[in-house]
Amino acid sequence: MNIKKIRNKTLPAICVSLVFCLAALGGCGISKASTAETDTPEPIQWCNGTYAVLTEINNGDSSLFGGMAHNSINRQTVLNALDESWEVTTKEELDEMIGSLTVGRHNPRFLQEAREYGITSMSASEFKAALEGVENREDVNYFQNMFDAYQQFGGSAIMGWDLSRAVQLCGYGYIADFYTYEDATAKALEICGQIQGTFDSWDGFFASYLYGYVYWSEDDVEDPDSSYVKRVNILKDLKDDETSPLNLDWNLDLSIG
User: Fold this and answer.
1) Rounded to whole angstroms, how far apart are CA atoms 74 and 65?
2) What is the total count of domains within the chain?
């Protein structure tokens, strides 16, 4: 089997990382929380851990559901970001977006592409031989990421990427007042149960998340200044932080009350 030398770059037009540009928002950024808001139950802290990387990138607070305080400043920030980055302006559109992520918004596309390249049926030695015919370093990195993701997780290759953002959007739906706190956390906990059932550890979940990020962004994993490397370093810092939700038991009971 041969890997195509030229990839068809047909990734979605909608920006899915939802990184807030604080400078573009006139410096208002994310408004801080009151002390009372930081008393978060462990199951919700666990939920927060699934999108803690983006929370850190946004200078948010991983102890808070949604990564920030629930107030009028942050509501407008999130409403603007949902519109500009996700083309979501209503509760119904947010419901649809979260639903598409929970069944795999990018994972099915990834698997289809991997099958088209023959990667899903290649052994390690066959893949190595096929890569010898690929001259472009970016293509080599792209195919290597695809092969590694499929080898490690099979049909759930980059579901970590999709499910992380599904939980993240539940939090943003609360901050934006599309959902009540109770409805948003119930929806998030249901997705987190799916995450626990799909992956066996924080390390496994975030490995799939990073595979998905590289697939979506086509970031250069060998560039020390890349967004990929930034995320890897954030994950390391989160795991080293005793207060981080990533130090909660992976198999934590996510029921509340």
Assistant:
1) 13
2) 1
